[in-house]
Amino acid sequence: MLDKIFAAIGAATLSLAAFTGGAQAQEDPVKVRIGTLLSEIVGPPLYVADDYGIFAENGLEVEVIKFDNGTQMTQALVGGSLDGALAGAAVVSSIAVRGLGVMVTPTYLEYDTNLIYATDASGITSVEDLRGQQLAFPFGTTAHVLVSSALREAGMTFDDIRAVNMGYQATTAALLSEAVPAVVISGGFVEAVTRKGAKRVTSLRDFYPETAVLGGLVLSNAFVESNPEALPKLAASVIEAQVRLTEEEVRRKVYDDYFSKLETYEAFDYAYNLGRFPTAPEWSAFFADGSVANWAIFTAEILKEVGALDRIGDPEDFLAPDVFNAGAALVNQ
User: Which residues of 118-135 are buried (b: 16+ CB within 10 A; e: fewer)?
Assistant: First the structure.
């Protein structure tokens, strides 16, 4: 499938003028439904590309749809109610790596986005202390990768804990109310839980760079097959949005528009900086040296090991470096 798509992309990029100016204005915009999370490092590129007219400039009419977790997005992609998702490693694994879609644009590496916290009253201070205890987290997500990595490092398995499937916002509420002794939270909730006396047990940074959790834009096979010439435009839009996000003024606007009712700017900025955001040339190099494939497969192997994934495909089938590089060329023209 990708060979045909790359051939179409190559033909399209021979005439970059077709993507810009008057020629584009005469075309009907390509409609795309993209899901994402209201997470500090995941959603902002879509918000910027939409709010600053970057999608429109590239002949795209994008509907950004918010979800509570990656599992919901995966179900929507499989069910056909989404064309794509800008999401974390769990969605990359359950859609792209499984062969149900293609990752066209990686956007971030999760350095310390997910953290295990415990109530002060629980007495839990280490992963070993979780033995026999409830630990709430959203199954099949980056949180699952963290828990698996932590248990493996401690010589434990999921049988040693009482895992509870719960979304990120719900885990935070459960910890604050002490309904459960330990949970996985996202970085944006650190301020809230520490204010209540909760203690950090471990987090992704303790397993980095071996656990370099990868996120990015994944598109369904159906959309990829039907809209090959739109793929570089989508990649270009996300790449340009990532560049814009290096400006604090742009990040501040994202905060004001989407996060100000949820947290302070300091908390938003803290959570945003828990990610790592390679430049387009850096991503191109990571594609070329096999790093992107290795990161994607590493996470997929953990999810497969715990039963959250049934198969792992070939990177040549689920990664699209040619699309990414074509998008980067559009940004730089």
Answer: bbeebebeebebbeebbb
